[in-house]
Design goal:
- By secondary structure, the chain is of the alpha/beta class.
- It has one domain: Rossmann fold, CATH 3.40.50.
- It is 47% helix and 13% strand.
- It is built from twelve helices and seven strands.
- The chain has a seven-stranded mixed sheet, with helices on both faces.
- Helix 1 crosses helix 12 and helix 2 packs across helix 3.
- The radius of gyration is 17 Å and the shape is globular.
- The N terminus is likely disordered.
Length: 264
Amino acid sequence: MRGVKLFTPKAVLFLHAFPLNKRMFVYQFKALEEANIPYIAIDYPGFGNAPLPISQDPPFEFYTDYVVQKLSELGIKKVIPIGVSMGGYIMFDLFKRYRELIDGLIFVATRAEEDPPERKKQRYQLAQKVLNEGKDFLIETMLEVQTSPATKKDGKKIELLKCIMEEATPQGIAAALRGMAKRPDYTPLLKEINVPTLVVAGANDTKVTPPEVVKRICDESNCSLYLEVPNAAHLPPFENPQFFNEKVIPWLKSIITDGNPECL
């Protein structure tokens, strides 16, 4: 976990993508500190510095409950989550079951729909392959499909991204894959969203969550703003942090201070 202040009543909550950890938001941490915005970033079990998951086949809600437990330990009563991909799935479940915690939502490169049957099957097969063969093949695949052409040309950024992914354990990867396969369809929740909501897609995300898929969250909810980040695919905060921060931080400030989203 990481944050500017402990026991602050309200904070931005960073929820990372699979198979990364909180370090994928390294470019946001400094920016929020400079803006004096409290935040917390949490690793999921089996990722980063978190302990191994207690089950190799957990319900998806396990991850949400883990996050809520950490927030409770820190005395945080309200959050504005920024969730990328898997982090976005957790955000939907947070809103579904812990709505009293939510003051705003920032969905990034994610979707509300559940996996189709074939994708569920593939996740289980991939989980077993990681346990049998290790995670190297998965990391190479993720580096390919999750990044834009511009990111691929940035050797230092790709190397850091690879290092972050390598901190994931095979057990954590397998459990997360199986948990995501069991997540429900969250599209019915979209019409219930009643807090300021920002939806962000990577303009070059052609292989994981294309912009038209991400935009459905905004189109079918009371979304305040939809953004597409240039020179970014599935990991906009990491791939193009300057654009992401310039757009998101003023919006966050307006929510933190008075609850009304600023027009960008």
